[in-house]
Amino acid sequence: MYLVYVVKVMIIVTQPPVNPADINTIQGKYPNKPPLPAVPGNEGVGEVIAIGSNIKHLNVGDRVIPNGSHLGTWRTHANYTSEELMKVPKEVGTIEASMLNVNPCTAYRMLKDFVSLKPGDTVIQNGGNSAVGQMVIQLCKLWNYKSVSVVRDRPNIQELKDYLISLGADEIFTENEVKKTQTFKSKKLPSPKLALNCICGQNALEVLRHLAHGGIMVTYGGMSREPLTVPTSALIFKDITIKGFWMTAWTKANMNSLERESMFSELGALFKDKKLKAPPHKLVPFCQYQEAVTNALNMNGRTGIKYILDMTKP
User: Fold this and answer.
1) Which of 52, 133, 149, 246 maximizes the CB count within 10 A of its CB?
2) Domain Enoyl reductase (ER) spans what residues (predicted)?
3) How is 140-174 classified by DSSP, letter by letter?
4) What's the predicted TM-score (pTM) here?
5) Which residues are part of the catalytic machinery?
């Protein structure tokens, strides 16, 4: 039996995605360290099953997602304050709703906040097959930007390229191909004004070399576990700027802003209208969580699947 406080909302959690950051938090390696005892999980979608008498903007039956970080979604039931939850339109698919407040928002903010992009401008990124990378490709297509993605080579590379092109990518290169490409020198595409980096190491260095004069590289991950190396010439002669982005910090700084409200409204509408789609994914019963955890930490970048815990099958 669950105790429901007057100021609380009780939900059934159904489908929390598993991210590397979730595992790093459990390991104590992530900057955010929730006080113990703690429940893992940043993302997820749930259904309201009970509300306190003072709750005005939520009703029983509403679908909700966490309105913040480290609220603990790897569980079947939870009590939250109403401010900790955000209502999601029922027209948005369950899978899309479950991952709405991390990967799509990360892609959205990086495309909006660092460079004033215009239709026809080019964005280059590594990790193009990641969940964020696929959102970047789709948003670039919708906003009329050109997108170039770098992915790691694999046996089914042409299948992956075809899939990413079907999402709207203009060019897909392997790490070896991006070293040799003449795409920008030949003016086939304008030199990128914005580079998005989630890999670091040599991969990021090759991406950096293609940035236009005055371009910006935004780093939001380091899946290679190697440092980001920046040539002196890029700083002096090309006036390249290096910045970092952390969605959690942006959310904390903009929790009640109109800008955040507008972002969720736009992303929700795009998912509802099927103009954005979730990456390939696999639902894993919670009792088989080891598969999701192991693959979430896979560092070779070749799994190609977003793992989501199915809390309806604990």
Assistant:
1) 149
2) 3-309
3) HHHTT-EEEEEE---TTHHHHHHHHHHHT-SEEEE
4) 0.93
5) 30
